[in-house]
């Protein structure tokens, strides 16, 4: 074989393998899979934008932990209508009627008034009632009384005319009124007190109550509605078998399932106290629960559930129903743990005068969480 023949064969072989490699690389090359863009915005109306959220870290939970989150979220959702009724005595009747109109109406859905009706209903949904969630002012309808009457008639929807009047008048204009000259209770639309009860009567009623242990005062009034029966003030307690009993029984059902998959004994113990509180309405059980809840610090899942914040009561006694379920933000907690471990370094290098610096920084911890579910006062 002469040198020309050898070079020709070598060149041909090189070209063959080069082409083969190129084909192989081309065959192995895959088109990148486009990540599906998460749509955060669900809807936008009035001054509101409705957003959905993701739950990063969900895949890091065990099946048992995921069940716990699910049960706790369902427990929270089971009490949603409690918040609606607490906000205003006619809220549930109004919502039921408006929703029936929305799903049954077959008339002109391109009119200005129908669009105003839809916006009004969405605002009511968002605020858990007919009063604005921040200002406490009654939401303006944006359509006429005559138009609503026609919608009710065309869809065969029943709504007491006295309730319809409320939607188009100044009656019950403020959910929570803090102007004493208008009467804290009389001027507030919240459904925590019966008709005709005054702020002075409320104060006198609770002034007579004494806690078994004066050093550990109970939260009197936290879980009840105060009404007059036969001229006397009595509490309608929110518990199983009492006011809101049907909804509370559903809450108990899901909490018991959650207790069965609790992450640890302390968490299960706290849930047990909460279940007992819902069953009996006993405020001592509520205190016992809160102590146990603060001690249950281990685990990846935490929650809030019950009648807690008292801002919606002009007298500051009664708690609004609220539920929040959250899981540990694993990535951010890991990062913040580094900062916590180096707290002494930050103290040493802070621009403080030496005499104000701590020689031994202790007790620094930091955890971040991701919300998995909300209901009641915490959410639309």
TrEMBL record:
For this protein, the record's InterPro entries field holds: Peptidase_M49 (IPR039461)
Pfam families given for it?
Answer: Peptidase_M49
Gene Ontology molecular-function annotations: hydrolase activity; metal ion binding
Going by the entry's taxonomy, the superkingdom of the source organism is recorded as: Bacteria
**Alphabetical keyword list:** Hydrolase, Metal-binding
Protein name, UniProt field? Dihydrofolate reductase
